[in-house]
Amino acid sequence: MAEPDVKNGPEDVAEKLSKLTMGDSKVEADDDDFVDPWSVASKSATGIDYNKLIKKFGSSKIDDELVTRIEKITGKPAHHLLKRGVFFSHREMHGILNKVEQGKPFFLYTGRGPSSNSMHLGHLIPFVFTKWLQETFDVPLVIQMTDDEKFLWKDLKLDVAQKMAIDNVKDIIACGFDKEKTFIFKDTEYIGQSPAFYQNMLRVQKCVTFNQVRGIFGFGDSSNIGKIAFPSIQASPSFSSSFPQIFEGKKDIPCLIPCAIDQDPYFRMTRDVAPRLKYPKPALIHSTFFPALQGAQTKMSASDPLSSIFLTDTPNQIKNKINKYAFSGGGATLEEHQKNGGNCDVDIPYQYLTFFLEDDERLAQIKEDYSSGKMMTGEIKKTLIEVLQPIVKKHQERRKMITDDEIKEFMRPRKLKYDYSTKK
Amino acid sequence: MAEPDVKNGPEDVAEKLSKLTMGDSKVEADDDDFVDPWSVASKSATGIDYNKLIKKFGSSKIDDELVTRIEKITGKPAHHLLKRGVFFSHREMHGILNKVEQGKPFFLYTGRGPSSNSMHLGHLIPFVFTKWLQETFDVPLVIQMTDDEKFLWKDLKLDVAQKMAIDNVKDIIACGFDKEKTFIFKDTEYIGQSPAFYQNMLRVQKCVTFNQVRGIFGFGDSSNIGKIAFPSIQASPSFSSSFPQIFEGKKDIPCLIPCAIDQDPYFRMTRDVAPRLKYPKPALIHSTFFPALQGAQTKMSASDPLSSIFLTDTPNQIKNKINKYAFSGGGATLEEHQKNGGNCDVDIPYQYLTFFLEDDERLAQIKEDYSSGKMMTGEIKKTLIEVLQPIVKKHQERRKMITDDEIKEFMRPRKLKYDYSTKK
């Protein structure tokens, strides 16, 4: 899937703002924020207004009731990314929970558009949460690497996109997915290995006109024809029939897609099309965006090494980047900070801690101390450094252990360990 | 490939007339004829003006010099479809002959869009000629069945299109292709079996914009996105790298495409794109259209059983159709016919004989006798019936003998019998 990156928008953002519209939901032009699969822009220091986005996109807010229901059904505490509102929006999550209660199967689908050899911290978020979903619900997972998308959108050769995909697959495997229950595929290989997948692409393509993809994705007359057809490729893994080797030919196993909210347009389109193909609509669970080091209204770019912390950064690089570049919500002077306290809503070290510090009590304490001015900017940065350094180090250690054979096995079209026959 | 069928044009023909334009060649609006992959329309009783079409499309006329050169290089007499101008136009045929003289390899590519369970006589023409090319030049051949195209364009389900493709494959095999040198594939299967093919589709897609396919094919805002991307699928078999199993990974083996002239827009686009992919441009050899029984300016439709002779027709059906429906260029009365003679330019029995009566001398005699009024309409119809009945009968006998295993073998991605290493 595409990562948010303003520069890579296929068309002019202003032009898009005036014409975004899709199927059952209408996306209106807005003075503040702009979100689509290639562009995320906000004028506010606190970043995107996610409540507004829920209204615009026509999704549902994840409320306490839903979180409680998930905890009740799974018998496990909710993940901190769910409790803290990083995953904040959904479509038909209750439908998936109904299936679980009825003992019926579902599967997870997420993905990544490989855009650089190295992923940054923000790229981990959907995978960290997806891993939790997989463990908690004990379900199969498919992960799509859209190397074809990157080839079509960027000025790079196909083999470079493919190489990037494999580099990213290593980072994804390092998140700890269960090999027996996870199929990772890159489009440029799997589409050429699966007539069923290609046939679903065709079925989706037949239901979607140029008018529609122009409205949803802002494609124009000068867009290449690969881009225009691409939404069908991101839609197809939502349907269990695209993976006959996993789902034993079953066409009706519903899908839950954890992803950043910018990918929602693809799946609004998919949900529009699904009933016409007599397939279940995919359910979704959406995350907010991971902010750039420089603040929520700036863009985080994989091509700007100073805008984010990479999974390849050394402990020292992490320390220096946070100390030098992490946007602070603290007071301008010691005096001012002690008097007014820090602003957690814009403070990047605090924001990052909400993503990566699992200890709820400690996070609450930090918030209190920082907001009151008791904790200094240097201290909160130090805390973040101490949290991130071991996370990145462990990731690097796990990544280093991944063999070519392991990658091959994850990417081999095969049956996954999940017995559909025992399900009702 | 699409067969000419006015009804299946994706957009309004008049609208297309005003905007057809493509790459290096310009297709201007014309008062008389209209030709594109879905529409062939002529107001003249003699049908399309092919000399005008050559100018419009920017191809080259097949002249005596080219025919003589083919005979000289192959040491064999030219096929009657070539001598008689049924194959009348080409692109870079001399380039292919240069390769042959240099002892360098090339391959043949043709195809069919399966549109009904049964093919008619006209559908045989490109295959009859392709078989002769394969035998004469001793080269490998790939045949694309665009069942995906038919699914995207027509109101039918994917499995119906796939079934039609297999039915048509039987008729194609019955033409007598060499199993060891021929690979027949349907898109909905082969694309899902060949990462190399899909990757070439992507490469073509990246080079072609919506603007371009709108200009070439008349696609519009309400065209589905599968149609818009489809030209990349018909382009890809032009490149040897789409068939690594046949060409041992070689990317530079040139391709010769025998096809009806209405398919040329696909390959003008392909030739435009090829240099950017560093692939050789495909060469082409174009045929005229096979006229409908009712005359050259009417359309022949696979869905109208009376407009053509089907490969499933009985001897009696053939006889009755020709006697009842074949448009006659003879005089209105016996007296008038004896006085003015018949007009071979519009007479369908004579036209059909030029396609199917191999004996040059006999054909010339018939032309003389009919034009002079010595031969009656009933006689020329009888001659045609006597020529076609055994052709169709033999075809049916050969078709009946084709086993499922044989079809499987023709359609199995595999190495073909052709040794590239011995070629210079």
Automatic annotation (TrEMBL), chains A, B:
One MF annotation (Gene Ontology) recorded for this entry: tryptophan-tRNA ligase activity
Cell compartments where the protein resides: Cytoplasm
GO (cellular component) term, any one: cytoplasm
Enzyme class per UniProt: ligase
InterPro entries in alphabetical order: aa-tRNA-synth_I_CS (IPR001412), aa-tRNA-synth_Ic (IPR002305), Rossmann-like_a/b/a_fold (IPR014729), Trp-tRNA-ligase (IPR002306)
Keyword tags: Aminoacyl-tRNA synthetase, ATP-binding, Cytoplasm, Ligase, Nucleotide-binding, Protein biosynthesis
NAD recorded as keyword: no
EC id: 6.1.1.2
GO biological process terms on file: tryptophanyl-tRNA aminoacylation
Similarity comment: family membership: Belongs to the class-I aminoacyl-tRNA synthetase family.
NCBIfam families on file: trpS
UniProt name for this protein: Tryptophan--tRNA ligase, cytoplasmic
